[in-house]
Specification:
This protein is of the alpha+beta class. The protein has 4 helices and 9 strands. The strands form 2 sheets. The protein has a 7-stranded antiparallel beta sheet with strand order 1-2-3-8-7-5-4, with helices on one face. A two-stranded antiparallel ribbon has the order 6-9. It starts with a helix and ends in a 27-residue tail after the last helix.
Length: 210
C-alpha cells in the first residue's frame, strides 16, 4: 500500500510539472504529435487559418506578405508553422525574380517610398521593418515577440518576407524552432541589435498587436 501511495504521489508530481510546461515547444518531440502544424508546401500559401482558440493569423500576414505567389516568383524557400496553445506562427517566404527589370519594378511597387535600412545580420540585405520585437532569454527561449519585415538582396534579386509572432511571455519555444532566427544566426536577446530593438516588458501588450 505504501509503495502504491508513493507511486501515485510521484505520478501526481510529474503531472503537475508537465501541466505547467505544456505547449507546442515543450519538447521537440511534441511536434510529432501534431501540436505544431507546419508545412513547406507552397501550393497551400495563403491558407492561414484561425486557430481553434480564435486567434487569427491573416491580420498579421496581410500586412507584410504578398497576397499570392506571383508567376514571376522563383520560390527558394517556404515555411509556415503555427501553434494553437500557446499561440505562435511563423511564415517565411523567400523568393527570387530572374528578370532584373521586373525585380526593380516589383520592389519599387512593394516599398512605395517606404524607408529601408541595412540588415544588421547580413549587409547584403536591406530591410523594411513593420515590427521587430524579439524577447528571448540567454537560454534561447523565445518569449512574447513580433517580427514582421521584408528583406531585399539587390545583388541576387531576392526578397524574403517574414511574419512571426509569439503571443505569450512564457511560451516554450526555442530560437532554433524558427527559420528566420536560424537562417541569419540571430543570437539571444542580449546581443540582438545591441539591445536597441528589444521590447522591454512593461505592459501586457506588444507594440503592434491588432
Amino acid at each position: 500500500m505504501k509503495k502504491l501511495k508513493r507511486t501515485i504521489i510521484t505520478l501526481l508530481f510529474i503531472a503537475i510539472i508537465m501541466s505547467s510546461h505544456t505547449g507546442c515547444g515543450f519538447v521537440k518531440a511534441f511536434k510529432e504529435f501534431g501540436q505544431v502544424n507546419s508545412t513547406t508546401d507552397v501550393t497551400t500559401y495563403g491558407d492561414f487559418p484561425t486557430t481553434k482558440y480564435g486567434y487569427e493569423i491573416k491580420p498579421y500576414t496581410d500586412n507584410i506578405l504578398p497576397p499570392k505567389i506571383e508567376d514571376f516568383f522563383a520560390v527558394e524557400e517556404y515555411y509556415f508553422a503555427y501553434c494553437d496553445a500557446p499561440y505562435m506562427h511563423e511564415v517565411y517566404l523567400e523568393v527570387s525574380i530572374d528578370d532584373e527589370e521586373k525585380y526593380t519594378e516589383y520592389v519599387a511597387e512593394l516599398l512605395a517610398n517606404k524607408e529601408t535600412e541595412s540588415f544588421f545580420y547580413n549587409a547584403d540585405y536591406q530591410e523594411y521593418v513593420l515590427t521587430d520585437v524579439l524577447r528571448s532569454t540567454e537560454s534561447n527561449w523565445v518569449e512574447k515577440s513580433e517580427i514582421q519585415k521584408i528583406l531585399f538582396n539587390d545583388n541576387e534579386n531576392k526578397i524574403i518576407f517574414i511574419s512571426l509572432l509569439v503571443l505569450h511571455q512564457d511560451s516554450p519555444f526555442y530560437q532554433e524552432d524558427f527559420v528566420y532566427f536560424e537562417k541569419f544566426n540571430i543570437p539571444c536577446v542580449g546581443d540582438y541589435y545591441d539591445g536597441t530593438r528589444v521590447w522591454k516588458y512593461k505592459v501586457n501588450e506588444l507594440p503592434y498587436l491588432y
